Amino acid sequence: MAPAMGQSDAMPKLAEWLERLRGRAVPPSAQRSGLPTLARIAESQLAIPEPIRKALRELPEGDGASRLAGREKLVAGLDEATAGWLAGKPSNVAVIGPRGSGMSALLVALRERTFARPPQRGDLDEEVVVSEVLSYQGRVRSEAGIVEFLADRLGIDLARPDVEHLVAKLADGPRRVVFLEDAQDMLLRVVDGTHAMEALLAITGRTAIRVLWVVSCRRQTWRILDHQFGVRRGFPHCLSAELPDPAPIAAAIRAWNAAAPAPVSYRAAKPTRRSERKPGQDLLEEEFLEILWKVAGGNLIAARLYWLDSLAWDVERERFRLAALYLPDMSVTRSLPRAQLYCLLSILQHGGLSADEHAEIYLTDPTFSRRTLEALVQTGLVDPLGDGTREARYDINPAADTRLVSTLEDLNLIY
Question: How many structural domains does the chain have?
Answer without folding.
Answer: 3
